[in-house]
């Protein structure tokens, strides 16, 4: 009997264990049957408004005029009258070469000219007297010819002396080195007392400030697209709205410096397949300096109603760009899109999205296929808030 009692006790223990397991399984099944909580996301409709697409290119500023200043006469630097980096006007005095040797040469040329002038006056009077006497026969023909020759010689000496005097006056004028253009000076490259060689020694450099040029390269494909966009391509007349441009420098979020296109090269570069173009920008405050990099925005399309969304609403799926569109049952549908440029702080959607779709703009990491969402609707402003804040500043 003890053996039978042991079997009965074991059977009751197994039955209790199975019952406990069944209860746990039922509880877990009931818990699994409960729905997961809805994921909170922010949704909004895209901004739809008339836009014109811009194409951006990288370029560099260059001065309209830049001149290496050299002396036109040799000598020692006597005076420097400009400050490094100063703004000067055309004709301002920059440096002076020692005038003493040129003053002496001028005085000598003046004396030579005065002597030649005296000889010429005497030869003219002598010739006039000979001409009068020749009419009455009181002078020989040979003597009259001699006086004519003396006058011609005196005239030549006078002209030579006058040319030497003019040259001496030019030389003494060249000892004053003046700014050939208005602009900003570079640093001086000579000091007082340095010997300057005429037409060789670079004394300093000057670049014009206002306006300033901006050079950039356009690839062949884009250049052909511009030709199709307008009959003139990039060569639209000055003042045409199609050639208005804006340039951004440094960390500026968008191009804000206005200008206009005024030149393109007459051929494509065979090695790079690009066309060099130039824009001109006003620069009265001198903030734009030669050598500075910038981003230029060109008119890239005709006006049309564009669909714009924040960059934060765009996700990546391998090599595709996607957005999540909210469905009526509060789940999200993955929608491939084709992106365009940024306008007013938003990304242009060229294909894949309509203006009446509701998209997820915040909380993309919580979106999963089939997962219920708890959408909170917001309204996108016509201009992104960050750009509006920048404009207010």
UniProtKB/TrEMBL annotation:
Gene Ontology BP, a term: response to antibiotic
Domain Multidrug resistance protein MdtA-like alpha-helical hairpin: 106-175
Pfam families in the record: Beta-barrel_RND_2, BSH_RND, HH_MFP_RND, RND-MFP_C
Entry GO CC: cell envelope; plasma membrane
Occurrences of domain Multidrug resistance protein MdtA-like barrel-sandwich hybrid (ranges): 66-202
Record's subcellular location: Cell envelope
Multidrug resistance protein MdtA-like C-terminal permuted SH3 domain segment(s): 307-365
Start and end residues of each CusB-like beta-barrel domain: 243-299
Molecular function (Gene Ontology), one example: transmembrane transporter activity
Assigned protein family: Belongs to the membrane fusion protein (MFP) (TC 8.A.1) family.
PANTHER family: ACRA/E-RELATED COMPONENT OF DRUG EFFLUX TRANSPORTER, HLYD FAMILY SECRETION PROTEIN
Name by which UniProt lists this protein: MexE family multidrug efflux RND transporter periplasmic adaptor subunit
Species of origin: Aureimonas endophytica
Lineage per the UniProt record: Bacteria, Pseudomonadati, Pseudomonadota, Alphaproteobacteria, Hyphomicrobiales
């Amino acid at each position: 009997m003890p053996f039978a009692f042991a079997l009965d006790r074991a059977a009751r223990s197994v039955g209790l264990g199975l019952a406990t397991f069944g209860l746990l399984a039922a509880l877990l099944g009931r818990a699994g049957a409960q729905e997961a909580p809805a994921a909170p996301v922010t949704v909004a409709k895209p901004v739809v408004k008339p836009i014109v697409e811009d194409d951006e290119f990288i370029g560099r500023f260059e001065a309209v005029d830049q001149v290496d200043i050299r002396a036109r006469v040799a000598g020692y630097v006597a005076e420097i009258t400009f400050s490094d980096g100063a703004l000067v006007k055309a004709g301002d005095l920059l440096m002076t070469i020692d005038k003493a040797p040129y003053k002496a040469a001028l005085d000598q040329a003046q004396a030579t000219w005065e002597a030649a002038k005296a000889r010429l006056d005497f030869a003219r009077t002598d010739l006039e007297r000979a001409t009068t006497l020749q009419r009455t026969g009181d002078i020989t023909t040979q003597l009259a010819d001699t006086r004519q020759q003396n006058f011609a010689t005196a005239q030549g000496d006078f002209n030579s002396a006058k040319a030497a005097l003019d040259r001496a006056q030019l030389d003494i004028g060249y000892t004053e080195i003046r700014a050939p253009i208005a602009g900003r000076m570079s640093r001086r490259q000579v000091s007082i007392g340095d010997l300057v060689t005429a037409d060789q020694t670079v004394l300093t450099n000057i670049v014009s400030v206002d306006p300033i040029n901006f050079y950039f390269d356009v690839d062949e494909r884009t250049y052909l697209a511009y030709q199709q966009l307008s009959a003139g391509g990039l060569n639209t007349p000055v003042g045409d709205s199609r050639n208005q441009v804006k340039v951004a420098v440094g960390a500026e979020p968008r191009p804000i410096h206005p200008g206009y296109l005024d030149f393109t090269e007459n051929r494509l570069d065979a090695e790079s397949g690009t066309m060099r173009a130039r824009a001109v920008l006003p620069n009265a405050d001198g903030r734009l300096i030669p050598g500075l990099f910038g981003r230029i925005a060109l008119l890239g399309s005709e006006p049309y109603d564009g669909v714009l969304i924040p960059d934060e609403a765009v996700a990546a799926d391998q090599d595709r760009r996607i957005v999540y569109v909210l469905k009526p049952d509060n789940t999200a549908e993955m929608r491939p899109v084709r992106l365009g440029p940024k306008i007013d702080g938003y990304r242009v959607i060229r294909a894949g999205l309509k203006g009446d779709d509701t998209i997820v703009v915040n909380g993309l990491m919580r979106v999963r296929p089939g997962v219920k969402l708890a959408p909170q609707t917001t309204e996108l402003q016509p201009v992104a808030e960050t750009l509006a804040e920048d404009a207010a500043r």
